User: Fold this.
Amino acid sequence: MARTKSRLKWVVLVVVAFAIAFLGWWYIKWRNGEAPTYQTAPVTRDDLIQFVTATGQINPITNAQVGSQISGTVLKLYADFNSAVTGGQLIAEIDPAIYKAAVDSAEGDVASAKAGLELARINEAREKQLLDAKLVPPSDYDQTVATLHQAEATLKMKDATLETAQVNLHYCKIYSPEDGTVISRNVDVGQTVAASLSAPILYQIANDMKTMQIDASVAEADIGNVAPKQTVNFSVDAFPYRTFHGTVSLIRNSFSNVQNVVTYDSVIAVDNKDLKLRPGMTANVSIIVAQRENAMKIPNAALRFRPLDAPPTAKAPPTTSAAPGGQKSEGHKQGERQFSRTVYVLPPGSNKPQPVQIKIGISDGTSTEVVEGLKDGDQVVTGVVISQASSGQSANPFAGGRRF
Assistant:
């Protein structure tokens, strides 16, 4: 019995030792067959442009809304959609019948008030003579003078009523306030407009369709980089293969808050001499806030790459204070934002990436400018691929490194 237990013990020990040896051999073979291959990109030079993107609506610079001061039925329309109008041109007419009657009635009231005033003056003169002859008491004369003053006041009120009626009659004819093009007509002949609560809009007239503006909504995170006179490129869905150009003319301090997103209205002046752009079109705007010529740049993936054995590093603070860019320049202006970052460079003939501290400048979203720390032709690591020699297949490119 003891001999059987001893043999069983030795068998178990041999099996365990064999298993450990096999696992060690398999691990060494697997590790030797795994050759890390790094994805690299060279440091290059090219022009680099940093944009701030936004969307906005194309509008005329001056958009006059022509309304009606009075209520009534539209009698005639003298302008239609896309009609060219001049300042002072008659463009619509409200039925004047009621207002003509009001003028006639007011004129009659004025005539009656004038007659009453004449009679009051005659009475006052007669009472004055009787008072001088001591034939009437002073109280009668005072009453006559008061009646005269009341007649004078009544005439003034009737004159005001007549003037109001005449003004309302004049408002029956609606004139264009300025030269321009009709972009909207909101009424038809025979339609009744009610101006009791608010003035109804009959027409919208654009002053000059050859000069337009874009009201672009720029996020608060980007508004600090936007400044007047910056160049703007934009496109519209109506002409997807054409790039239009404009200039930032004004940044309004008023803001909009939609679902906790704060945006500011940036007004962009646009030349529309060919009249291709129409009011209401949506513009996809790219504002050039910084531009470099022959800048040293690297792919943004190089800034995100970290080897698995690299310790996590915090983003360094800016080395100088920030200032809005936007001017074309080959160098760097004092006050422009520069960050210190760590990238990994693969030296020639080596398969071990080396960390390098660099300073970066502007970015176009794909590439980032390198201010110092690298030289032309350096190979920066952007990723890693672990190839398995035993199977001849490539593993996940994110398996041998980490990106962030």
